[in-house]
Amino acid sequence: MPALTKDQASARAFDNSKAYQPQEEEGKQFFDDGREVELLHFVYGHPSIAHIRGSPKKVLEAIDEYGRTKKYLMNVGDDKGKIVCDLIRERRPQVMVELGGYVGYSAVLFGDAVRRAGGKRFFSLERNPEFAAVIMSLADLAGLSDIVKVVVGPSEDSIKRLHADGSFRSIDLMFLDHYKPAYTTDLKLCEHLGLITPGTILAADNVIKPGNPPYLEYVRSSVAQKQEIYRSGVKNGDDTAGFGDRYRNQYQNRVGDEMLSTWVKGNPKLIYQSKLVKSFEPTGVPVSTSSTCLD
């Protein structure tokens, strides 16, 4: 049965009083320019640091304060975050994985939600060691070190390593918010390793803006369509032409040209149910998040 897709309008209008600073215009650096470490100094130097310690809610408020008054941060924010937190409360995942942790906003928000729902572990996979250090520091500040595990390295390598060492054998809920062309290749890797099981939920950010056509096409395809692609021998993940330069070359200064896996073809027999949920970036820009469940 092909995947089903529907649009679900956000029930709330955006509150402009909480808007982040605008994202820098095309051609200008909007992350990895020192603002992430600056955020850490801002939070730990906050006049209310004594009240922030041990409180996930207050850590998130401090991060939001920086994003609103200082510089833009590419966080999930509380509007889109609520979509995922609702999934956590409903599905009560024991193991949740996020691909792309940035400065830890999502790790604090979702890690706290997973713990409240009775979950065991939240894995935050982040390729940039500086960003990973910020995540670890803020998760510790929030009192979440017992449940949030930060893993440093490329997502493909980290997924394979965590599976091989037994850190997880399946994933109950996965949040994809990393290098956009890697959404599909990493999902196929998880399928190949047997990490995607009946009931697994995938929450993928930014699938409409800036857009991720390969991912949406894959989770919406029927078994027959995927099997035909599988048999055709089409390489997996070596074409990023459908993505704008800003996102295709997002990490070029650090890692050079991206080398996505071309050997994993996933499991074409898996069937997903998918829907788009409309929401807002922390800046107030309307966006959609894809919520997908394996039947």
Question: What keywords describe this structure?
Answer:
alpha/beta, eight-stranded mixed sheet, 295 residues, 8 strands
Describe the structure.
The model is unreliable at 1-11 (pLDDT under 50). This protein has helices at 35-44, 49-52, 56-69, 77-91, 105-116, 129-141, 155-164, 182-192, 207-211, 213-220, 223-232, 245-248, 252-255; strands at 7-8, 95-99, 121-126, 148-152, 173-176, 201-204, 272-280, 286-294. The protein is α/β, with parallel strands linked by helices and 295 residues long. Helix 3 runs antiparallel to helix 5, helix 4 runs parallel beside helix 5 (105-116) and helix 7 packs parallel to helix 8 (182-192). The chain contains 13 helices and 8 strands.
What is the topology?
Blueprint: E1 7-8, H1 35-44, H2 49-52, H3 56-69, H4 77-91, E2 95-99, H5 105-116, E3 121-126, H6 129-141, E4 148-152, H7 155-164, E5 173-176, H8 182-192, E6 201-204, H9 207-211, H10 213-220, H11 223-232, H12 245-248, H13 252-255, E7 272-280, E8 286-294
Parallel strand pairs: 1-7, 2-3, 2-5, 3-4, 5-6
Antiparallel strand pairs: 6-8, 7-8
Helix pairs in contact: 3-5, 4-5, 7-8
Low-confidence stretches are: 1-11
**What structural class is derived from the secondary structure elements?**
alpha/beta
Strand order of the largest sheet: 1-7-8-6-5-2-3-4
Largest sheet: 8 strands, mixed
How much helicity do the residues have? Answer: 40-55%
- How many β-strand stretches? 8
Radius of gyration: 18 Å
Tell me the number of helical segments per DSSP (H or I, 4 or more residues long). Answer: 13
Mean pLDDT: 89
Global outline: globular
Query: What is the string of SSEs from the N terminus onward?
Result: EHHHHEHEHEHEHEHHHHHEE
Percent strand equals 5-15%
Oligomer: single chain
Distance from N terminus to C terminus (CA atoms, Å) equals 10 Å
